[in-house]
Design a protein that fits this description.
With 130 residues, the chain is mainly beta. It has a single domain, classed as SH3 type barrels, CATH 2.30.30. The protein is built from one helix and eight strands. The longest helix has 10 residues. It is globular.
Length: 130
């Protein structure tokens, strides 16, 4: 679903943004995290090596002039939307209000943009946003 909405945004000349709940599995620059969340620009001009698959979103981006490798598991994605009009899709968290991956071990440093171990993932649930 994330890949489809990303492509829809790009095809319509809009800027896709990803709302991420940061946990131990998520690799993002912690200095830019506010209230446990971060919004990431997923446009091709803002990312390098963007790869969206069924397990995670992996790419490089610049933050404060420094290049960072980012890894966002699907369980940590709270929503994807177009910056220009806010249209997109948002996902539920589990009953405790935390992403489903919160019980998993933290991601170690990785150089190829992918974690070393695959861990079980739960599929996100969908919520209609009006």
């Amino acid at each position: 679903m994330v890949r489809a909405i990303h492509e829809w945004c790009m095809d319509n000349g809009m800027t896709p943004h990803l709302l991420v709940v940061v946990d131990a599995q998520t690799r993002v620059p912690r200095a830019f995290v506010k209230d446990g969340e971060i919004v990431l620009n997923l446009s091709y001009s803002a990312t390098k090596g963007l790869h969206v698959d069924n397990d995670a979103v992996v790419f490089s981006a610049r933050f404060g002039g420094a290049s960072e490798n980012l890894y966002v598991p699907m369980d940590a994605i709270r929503g994807i939307f177009a910056r220009e009009n806010g249209q997109g899709m948002f996902f539920d968290l589990d009953a405790q209000g935390e992403p489903a991956s919160s019980g998993q071990k933290p991601v170690d440093d990785f150089s190829d943009g992918k974690p070393k171990d695959k861990v079980g993932k739960r599929k996100p649930t969908l919520t209609v946003v009006k």
